[in-house]
Design goal:
alpha+beta, Archease, Possible Chaperone, Chain: A, domain 1, seven-stranded antiparallel β-sheet, four-stranded antiparallel β-sheet, 13 strands, about 20% helix, disordered N terminus
Length: about 180
């Protein structure tokens, strides 16, 4: 297996190609963001964490994948912010702490993203760095971020529509639908 470690991350407006030597190339299609390691499986290139927008008739849908639940939460947050085209103010960072009851993984994901939407709307903050502690029945979150500089689109809510966290050979995958 070939592994390339990368920290490259941004929202793509067009097609971008990543490659190393002549061994392989990875074409990144519009609105695909991969974070972390890229693995060559012999058939396809897979990033350990990432998200991509899925065409949806009325709302916005995002496919998110990560090796574990903590990474899935963080990557889903980054994807949600990217859909809303949020930009942060440069400079001073702020932190917030909150707790979410842990019932099942799907409810935890929705509640986490809903809390981030609340912080965005209520306090004008975008959180882009997270620390998670699972304490039995509770997820304790410490999040760091900055005030919103610009937001092009508004997300009203995270829905439970077709929500199911699936386990694959590469980790966890979920499709999220956002009410806009």
């Amino acid at each position: 297996m070939f592994t390339l470690t990368t920290t490259y991350q941004r929202n793509y407006k067009g097609s971008v190609t990543w490659g190393v030597g002549c061994d392989f190339q990875l074409e990144v299609l519009p609105f695909f963001v991969g974070i972390g390691k890229i693995r060559y499986t012999g058939k396809t290139m897979v990033t350990e964490t990432g998200y991509r927008e899925i065409e949806h008739t009325a709302d916005w849908e995002l496919e998110v994948w990560a090796p574990n639940l903590s990474s899935l939460l963080e990557t889903a947050a980054r994807g949600m912010y990217a859909l809303a085209q949020m930009q942060l103010v440069d400079g001073e960072r702020e932190s917030r702490e909150f707790e979410i009851p842990f019932g099942d993984r799907e409810s935890l994901l929705v509640d986490f993203l809903a809390e981030l939407l609340y912080l965005g709307e209520g306090e004008g903050l975008v959180m882009d760095e997270f620390s998670f502690t699972f304490d039995g029945n509770t997820l304790k979150v410490r999040a760091w971020g900055a005030p919103i500089k610009n937001q092009s689109k508004e997300i009203k809510a995270v829905t439970y529509h077709r929500l199911q966290i699936r386990e694959t050979e590469f980790g966890l995958v979920v499709n999220l639908v956002f009410d806009v």
